[in-house]
Write a structure and sequence with these properties.
single chain
Amino acid sequence: MNSLFERASAGDAHATRMVVDSLRPRLAKMAAYYARRTGEEADDLLQEAWLGLLEALPGLDVRIGSPEQYLIHHARWRLLDAVRRASTRRFASLDDSALEIEAREESPAGYACVAEFARRLKPVQRQVLSLLVDGFTWREAGGTLGCTSANIAYHVRQIRRCYEEWLGEAGPDAPCISQPKRR
């Protein structure tokens, strides 16, 4: 069997076809599983898995480990990268005009201040801020963006740092900065 993988990695079309045929059921099951888990299309995920497998084939060294496992791992990594990109793409369409973070004040000046501050943030930080303002927990925001709550904590620290810098630049008498209401 290793000679088949050696020939396929060397570019033999017949050997490549045989490798593809032998791994087809496993890749189809893997794509179907991740499609159920992520809500993506199984055919799209299967296509990404095939791309990962075929990209890894020329670099295959049959003397190290199991060739099938090596190719399956590369297929899974490519598939999961596609899932991550699709998740990010769903939420990465925010730009300055589409940012829908509502100011908690009812004044247009409050909204303008929030928009001004949000424009200073990186796109991922804007996404995090938007999700948190919408009431998501750190864990939920991480799940939505395809990362962990520790990543969200990092972004929140960066947002706070940027906010403190913005406050320092604006000064206490700026129309956007108001003192917190005491109850």
